[in-house]
Structure prediction request, 379 residues.
Amino acid sequence: MILELNEQQRMIRNMVREFAEKDIKPRAAELDEKNIFPWDSLKKMAQLGILGALIPQEYGGAGLDNVTYSMMVEEISRACASTGVVTSVHNSLTAWPIIHYGNEDQKKKYLPILARGEKIGAFGGTEPNAGTDLGAMQTTAELDGDNYILNGTKTFITSGPEAGIIIAFAVTNKELGTKGISAFIVENDFEGYKIGGIFDKLGINASLQSELIFENMVVPKENLLGKEGEGYKIALSTLDGGRIGIAAQAVGIAQAALDESIEYSKNRQQFGRPIAKFQAIQWMIAEMATKVEAARFLVRYAAYQKDQGNRISKEAAMAKLFASEAASWCADRAIQIFGGYGYTKEYPVERLYRDARITQIYEGTSEVMKMVIAGSLLR
Ligand SMILES: Cc1cc2nc3c(=O)[nH]c(=O)nc-3n(C[C@H](O)[C@H](O)[C@H](O)COP(=O)(O)OP(=O)(O)OC[C@H]3O[C@@H](n4cnc5c(N)ncnc54)[C@H](O)[C@@H]3O)c2cc1C
Prediction:
């Protein structure tokens, strides 16, 4: 594996970095404070190919590799973690399962819409009684003529109130356990589709999570994704890729905490000199930088393995476990370096600290990542 980026990857990373610095970062605090979904940025990101990063060119996407895509998510998240997770869910959890499991009609119908950012994607897996244990979901789908009728409630759905295309999971045959779960492509204007309560959260406040309520929702049978009973497999393989996106989001947050700490410590004077001159501060910065680099390489390795078509459950879990813990650690140290000012909303490290925390929870908690890693080692 080559750790160096190629010319094209470097060029794209620099382009996304520049865009994120100029267009996303200046508004990140305001969007967080006011819970504003980042539609303005998303429209521009669509034009830059970021919303169709993984979508093949024949369906209107940029057709990029996973290494490049993970850097895009990192750079966006470095500027705004909320916009980062919306990007990741749109690409990894919505477009990818259609690319991978969709039939030709589904690809032609939905991928160009996602690539153009006309509709934002979401992933409806979690339910009030089915979080880590996704197989315990209770949403049902019954075939009735040419349609499936879905009933149930999904919860914590990222972009839920704004999403137009949702990959939703439901039980088509209760007797078969996880082999009786199926995946569907749902549109937000389907009859019986309702948006439930929006959650008030600790961080990533601009990304908006809500319940999605399916009340006798009518889903045309051609919107079944893959075959009946393949839903659980589709969910797990989709989440493997999604974890690369969340790990990249975590690296972006950790890098931002490091950037802010370097700048602040060079300027803040105590005892007649910049605090960067104190070894205590230097050691924190050195450790932060080491964790950021290590996390980035784990993400890149998992993305590279995905590009090779290899199974990535363990690699993606390692990347997410390490990067998410590193993000929280780095944001915590950044607040320490900023002292009292770090605890205020005057500086971005307070937001980074709140935003980092979720990366250890969604798309599989840190405990689940350890289960996946151990499971693959102890087979
Ligand atoms: C901001 C946010 C955004 C989200 N976005 C989405 C989304 O877009 N789509 C979606 O489908 N879901 C989404 N989720 C849901 C998220 O993936 C779940 O919250 C997560 O998987 C954990 O499920 P849970 O909250 O029910 O916790 P639980 O499953 O109840 O877990 C509680 C605790 O028990 C531990 N635990 C559970 N089982 C085991 C076990 N077997 N061994 C050891 N420890 C265990 C967990 O690690 C955790 O510490 C989101 C959640 C949040 C908060």
User: Anything to note?
Assistant: Residues 231-267 form the longest helix (37 residues).
